[in-house]
Amino acid sequence: MTQKLLNDIKEAANILKDMKESQINILTHYDADGLSAAGSLVSWFRNQNTKFLCRVSYDLSEEDITSFLKTKCDAYIFLDLGSGQLDFIKKAKPKDTLAIVLDHHQMKMDPTEIDNLIMVNPEVHGIDGGKEACGSALSALTTYYASDKIETNCLKMGIVGSVGDMQGEGGPDSINQVLFQELLLLTYLQS
Ligand SMILES: [Mn+2]
After folding, report:
1. pLDDT at position 167, please?
2. What's the confidence (pLDDT) of residue 172?
3. What's the 30 CA to ligand 1 centre distance in angstroms?
4. Which residues are CB-contacts of 96 (< 8 A; sequence separation ≥ 6)?
5. Which residues contact 23 (CB under 8 A, 6 or more apart)?
6. N or C: which end of the chain has fewer CB within 10 A?
7. Is there a contact between 144 and 181 (Cβ–Cβ < 8 Å)?
8. What is the mean pLDDT of each run of 10 residues along the chain (191 residues)?
9. How far is the CA of 191 from the centre of ligand 1 (A)?
């Protein structure tokens, strides 16, 4: 199951890899997990001079989602939120514009009902998003693969976010554990 989620992460990373010249709009959640998730992606976009806008939502309200989706861009990214707001996204998202959701919360509706939406969520594969994969871990690994493993600070941000979300390492086969192992390997290679 983790392998399927990892494939979804790598697919999202491949899409982001080709968006260097794009305008990306990011909406994240105002908590430790959401801010760490944004930290990973934003620092990579900044390093490669990709134009981005990053907004933070405190209450995940329809008003926040709708006003975010009114700001034109080439791709929207939702971090640590979006799954519970799929109905708002369906109503407000411009149909032709791509949206990527990196989230670990339960989904309010079937994400395939929304055009041009990529959902990266452990819940899609029956993995408990409350224990095995937090938003910052998903964002960290997506950033790591999109940068061809050049961006490494994101792995640390992912650990910070997963601790902040009180998840820790997760089970032996969890996405949080994949993140942890990548960081351990990196530290070993650099020592
Ligand atoms: Mn979270």
Report:
1. 81
2. 75
3. 10
4. 115, 116
5. 51, 52, 53, 72, 73, 74
6. C
7. no
8. 92 96 97 97 96 96 97 98 98 98 96 98 93 94 95 93 82 84 88 81
9. 32
Cα-based torsion angle of the residue sequence 146, 152, 158, 161 in order, rounded to the nearest 10 degrees:
-120
Q: Determine contact, residues 35/79, Cβ cutoff 8 Å.
A: no
**Could you tell me the distance, in angstroms and rounded to a whole number, from the CA of residue 33 to the centre of ligand 1?**
5
Q: How many angstroms is it from 29 CA to the middle of ligand 1?
A: 8
Domains of the chain: 2-186 (3.90.1640.30)
Q: Which of 97, 100, 96 is nearest to 28 (CA)?
A: 100
CA 45 to chain centre: 14
Per-residue tokens: 11: 């697919």
| Global model pTM greater than 0.90 | yes
> What is the predicted pLDDT for the residue at 166?
82
- 95 alpha carbon to ligand 1 midpoint, in Å? 27
Q: How far is the CA of 142 from the centre of ligand 1 (A)?
A: 16
Cα of 189 vs centre of ligand 1, distance in Å, is 30
- pLDDT recorded at residue 30: 96
Q: Ligand 1 centre from 81 Cα, in Å?
A: 8
